[in-house]
Amino acid sequence: MASRGRRRGRKLALNAEINVVNLIDVMLLLMVIFMITAPIMQGGVDVSLPKAAARPLEAKSGLVVTVDRSGDIFVDKDKLTYEEFRASFKALSDQHGKGGGYLRADQGVPYGMVVRVLAVMRASGSTDVGLVAEPEDATH
To answer: Taking residues 67-83, what's their average pLDDT?
Structure first.
């Protein structure tokens, strides 16, 4: 009986450690969710790009100007009228740096509209303007 009393009288040491296994599980789950949703969120403006047999452009940072099927102009994701675009593109280009720019135009946009937007981009001092297109299928 004496040994029984000694066991009751001893106090157990407190365990003050944090169990990080659960935290790691949550972190990995969040990382997987962000990896899946990040490409979806970077879609930008939806356009049907023309197909061309062109070599791919090197990835650089630069302003992306998009002209959608209805003729609306987007600088990155901000919608502008042609007049607003013409008046503000030089300032936007200077603010963004000398990375050049990319012009994405829907294949249904009239050629004249694409030329007008390209002229504004070139007049602002952006001499390095890339025209974005979809690669042609190898079967054609």
So the answer is: 87
Query: Which domain does 128 fall in, by range?
Result: 51-135
Q: Give the distance from CA 92 to its chain's centroid.
A: 18
The structure's pTM equals 0.58
Please compute, for residue 104, the number of CA atoms within 13 A of its CA located in the half-sphere on the CB side.
19
Q: What is the pLDDT of residue 140?
A: 46
Judgement on whether residues 32 and 58 belong to the same structural domain of the protein: no
126's tokens:
């952006």
What value does the mean pLDDT take over residues 67-75? Answer: 88
Chain segment 114-137, per-residue pLDDT in tens = 889 988 888 887 777 887 877 776
Residue 75 phi/psi, 5-degree rounding, is -105, 115
* Judgement on whether residues 35 and 55 belong to the same structural domain of the protein: no
CA-to-CA separations, 95 to 60, 62, 89, in angstroms, rounded: 16, 11, 10
